[in-house]
Amino acid sequence: MEKLQGKTCLVTGASSGLGLATTELFAENGATVVMVCRNKDKAHTAVEGIRHRNPTASVSLELCDFSSLDSLRSFISIFTNNHTCLDILCNNAAAMKPVYTETGDGLEYMLQTNYLAPFILTQSFLHLLKRSQDPRVINITLPPEKLRLDLSDLQCRRSFNTMQSFYKTKLALLLHSLELADSLTGNDVSIICADPGPGPFDSGLVRDMPAPIRFFKKLISGKVDKAAANILFYATHSFLRKETIFKGTNPQQRIPYWNDRQVRDELRQKTDELLADLIS
Questions:
Q1: pLDDT greater than 70 at residue 79
Q2: Are 180 and 173 in contact (CB under 8 A)?
Q3: Residue 3 lies in a domain
Q4: Helix ranges restricted to H, the chain
Q5: pLDDT digits over 126-151, tens only?
Q6: What phi, psi does 232 have (nearest 5°)?
Q7: d(Cα 130, Cα 44) in Å, to the nearest integer?
Q8: Whole domain around residue 252: which residue ranges?
Q9: Phi and psi at residue 210, in whole multiples of 5°?
Q10: Looking at the 3D structure of the chain, how many domains does it have?
């Protein structure tokens, strides 16, 4: 039985790695999948590969560079004009930079790509999700439990460290997701945060990192198929309405910091301030 028959799914970062594997699996299960990709050549190659392996796959391509708010605005406009509802939003796209890097919008690159872009996408598409039956937002994020945000330096301008700064963007996404999930209590939209694992898997996340790091990541990474299967699990299992955070297929408890109302409110305030002059 095709578990996603008749569903419209949007997958970001869909040209390679987990995003590509998830797209293929969603399409195999009957979904119409919109692939959101940054690199035009890689994206077209990915689409051709999917259609070669599965001629009946219902996939389409939209180009969007999350490091450009103009590109993001354009994509949101195109998608909302072409779709009346959305069943599954999978915020998979992410970036890792070896040094502090700003986007053309003047924001730290990883913060914009890994947190602000999915924040904007989710907020922009909530009305489309609410029109669907059993809609879900799947955010790929489960940062270390001991990590804390410095809300006075959200862009890590004073204290940039590649791994810590990367995971802080993922923590920001997690906190926003939990806040959204709590605010949607009584609505039909499920918000799921997950590390699909198990363990490291093949992806293009470290493509900008030095060669030794890329080599080591490849050495310890397994196939992405199991992680994609877990995302299908998040997208289809009915009991997930009662759970928000997963590692693999195992539900995870919220730690007190993640539930801290003051932290989540201040993060939202800082987020709104960052975007106030950039999003109209």
A1: yes
A2: no
A3: no
A4: 17-28, 40-53, 69-82, 109-111, 117-129, 162-183, 211-220, 225-236, 261-276
A5: 999 999 999 999 999 989 999 999 99
A6: -60, -40
A7: 31
A8: 8-276
A9: -60, 155
A10: 1
User: Coil, strand or helix: which one is 136?
Assistant: strand
The verdict on residue 2 lying in a domain is no
pLDDT at 197: 79
- pLDDT score recorded for residue 210: 66
CA distance 212 to 244: 36
Give me the chain's average pLDDT, please.
90
User: What DSSP line would sit under 173-220, residue for residue?
Assistant: HHHHHHHHHHHTTTSS-EEEEEE--SS-B--STTTTS-HHHHHHHHHH
The CATH number assigned to the domain holding 256 equals 3.40.50.720
Q: Comparing C-alpha atoms, which of 67, 64, 70 is closest to residue 40?
A: 64
Average pLDDT over residues 263-273: 96
Q: What type of residue sits at position 21?
A: A
Domain assignment of residue 234, yes or no? yes
Q: In angstroms, rounded to a whole number, what is the distance separating the alpha carbons of residues 226 and 197? A: 7
Residue 224 lies in a domain: yes
Q: How far apart are CA 67 and CA 49, in angstroms?
A: 26
pTM: 0.93
d(CA 273, CA 271): 5
